Amino acid sequence: MHNQEHSSGALRLVQRLLQGMLIGLGAVLPGISGGVLCVVFGIYKPVMELLSSPFRNFRTHVPRLLPVIVGAGIGFLGIANLLSFFLEKYPDQSVCLFVGLIAGMLPSLLREAGEKGRSKGSFIALGAAFVVILSLLCGLNVLSVTIEPSFGWNLFCGFCVALSVIAPGMSFSTLLMPLGLYTPFVDGLGHLDMSVILPGALGAIVTVLLLAKAIDALFNRFYSIAFHAIVGIVIAATLVIVPYGTFAVTAGALAANVVCMAVGVAAALALDKFNSRFPKED
């Protein structure tokens, strides 16, 4: 009996570590939100309780979530290096893979959004968020605004990373890719560049301290409306990052882009299937 308890405890530890690594991956990979994976794995509530009141919940929550936190760190920094290599060598194919990942995650995102029912307001929020973000990002593209990475922008990147954990469905790359900040930020993380990591960490910590309580309250009170608005943001930002021009260059480029998108969709659907095996916890 004791051995059985011990082995189930070890399995739980490995499961938590794996979940943490996937949440870390989700925080860096475009289209997959660390927050959504927290929701899917059933640990969003304890994570938000810890982030909202870290001192009050430290002793009760940290021992339980420590394997998740360690796993998230490994997944986050481990994948960043690999990503920066692919984004540099194969930018268009990488983006197409990410677009596929986002498209494949949309069904589970919509399912999570409708978990507490859908109202007319939910669809209005989705439509409004879609129109606002699409207009904003297209406007930036038309004006061809180019942003040079700096201390201030790295702070903003950290804000986006934290947002992708505390606001389910909000992938930090959603905001950074159309602004051209995603690749330099991931490159800096992958190469452990402190001029990127320190402002990024500072931005993330400040965001958590300032917004965790408010976002937690927002999702508790207006879950469906808030979640549908995020779905609208994700769809709009995804449409903007598709490298439309490269599809028409050669048949080879077209084939490579389509294959990468298909692989992304398949990977996201496989991840969703994997997630559904885990019982949700509160």
Question: Assembly state here?
Answer: single chain
Total helices: the number is 13
- Briefly note the structural class of the backbone: mainly alpha
Q: What does the overall shape look like?
A: globular
* Secondary-structure element string: HHHHHHHHHHHHH
Q: Let me know the largest β-sheet.
A: none
Question: What's the pLDDT, averaged over the residues?
Answer: 81
Strand fraction = under 5%
Summarize the structure.
With 282 residues, this protein is mainly alpha-helical.
List keywords for this structure.
about 280 residues; mainly alpha; 13 helices
Question: What does the model show?
Answer:
The chain is an all-alpha fold. The chain is 83% helix and 0% strand. It contains 13 helices and no strands. The chain has helices spanning 2-28, 34-40, 44-52, 54-89, 91-113, 120-142, 151-166, 172-179, 182-190, 194-221, 223-241, 244-247, 251-275. The longest helix has 36 residues, at 54-89. 45% of the residues are buried.
